[in-house]
Amino acid sequence: MSALSQALWVLLLGSLLGLELIGKVPPTLHTPLMSGANAISGITVLASLTLIAQANGQVPLLLLGSLSLGFALFNVVGGFLVTDRMLAMFSRKKTRSGGAG
Amino acid sequence: MAGLDLLPAAIDLVAVLLLALGIKGLSKVSTARSANGLAALAMGLAVLGLLIQQPLSAQAWLWIAIGTASGGLLGLVTAQRVPMTAMPETVALFNGCGGMASLLVALGVALYSPGGAPGLVEQISIVISVFVGAITFSGSIVAMGKLQGWIDTPGWTQSSLRHVVNIGLAVACLASAIALPGAMAGLPLWVLVVASSLLGIGVTLPIGGADMPVVISLLNSYSGVAAAAAGFVVGSQLLIVAGAMVGAAGLILTQVMCTGMNRSLVSVLFGGALGGAAPVGGGGDEAGYTRITSCSAEECALALEAAERVVFVPGYGLAVAQAQHALRELSKLLEAHGVEVTYAIHPVAGRMPGHMNVLLAEADVPYEQLLEMDTINPEFPRTDVVIVLGANDVVNPDAKSDSTSPLFGMPVLEVDQARQVFVVKRSLGAGYAGIKNALFELPQTAMVFGDAKAVLNGLLSELRSMGVGKKVAA
Which of B10, B183, B188, B458 could be bridged to B179 by S-S, CB 3.0 to 4.6 A? Predict the structure, then answer.
């Protein structure tokens, strides 16, 4: 039971942290922030890897784990890269002095 | 031995810290890009920490390699290929896949119980993980389809029939969830999977295109919840805390977006599509307008040529027409002519809050020229020409003056204060709110009908033939 209550504490504190982390977001950043947060939610890769590690040679489990790993990594890799692509456009504008076309 | 146990724990803690700093940094313009990198680093650390903790067989490594190669490569290619205008549906697709991953993990544990027979907590977590994961997946895919224009809003989803269907599906989910612990790998599990997936479709399908960003943001929050639930299933505290953080932050972001659009979350989710979900430019109700002045690109070009201060108001129509590059060309030409050009960005301009900024940034519009609503509104009275490009409800003056208007109270761009307003639009069709726009009938307003890109290119050639911007080199 102590493992459970510990996990519930983690859940509670993590949720509270998440509520506090983003207070005022300029509208400019709504899309990149959503995309970045979306990439982070691909943290399920950890669950996929655990599933594969615990599969103990059972092929259906390995298959499910690998499939789920693929989906999660698609989310993670794609999410971070696409967020970076968006944000790169903002920072490029700032460092460049004139609008050379 | 103790040292070896501590290392993964330390890695996990650092990963959580970096993730939190990453989310925080993503909400500020100056730190956003490095914060994104920080979050990616955190993710890498978390995976590393897990891999050194778990003894893995060669067979396991093989399956990991297969999953990594396929998912990672697809993600890489997708992220590089997708056009900036398709960003909302891309985020929806990625998000749906995250939900699917949680669903598959829960299915694996439920069907094969790799870590021994699941206890009550695991069983509840499996139910939540399957339920939320399936809703996230099917809902996100529907959202993507609607944004891409692959899926229409069927008529029955606008009647109360949809509530009956969705409540039925919810009851089926609940019943199967209650029956699940009795037979982990049995029928209830599959009923839960199917009913949750259908419920995800059922709740997303009725929602109109304008509200889709809110839905994607909410589904993004769900995928965090699904990840946290998967954390309970496999017993990973890192997964629980990261999932909870994303879930909660996603809720806040959803709320922020709703506020910007003057919509309540409840009305987005249960109110159906506004204005009967008439497709944009679909003809709509053109009746009701009596004092419309329309003009040609030539007249508009003349006004631009004589202006000292011009403000562009880009909207959804600009994004659809992919006209951001033409717009940039036009403003360069005007600037070369000595005209002061700025862009007024409404918080919800484009297809998603912040989307317009990304699109214009892609077209090399200097960041300093993009002015937010509160900055630009006091400037309109001393503006000579405003050009509204495919925006409608966000410039409707009724939102300020007419308390009976459904838009009343929504913050709008006060373009009616400018000396002259040109509205570039494909037709007189109503905007998302499905109502008339009083701006169109004002004496200083003229409509330029046409696709935003075609009109802008027409303006460009008119101005060039007038000799505007000739002396400028480079």
Answer: B188
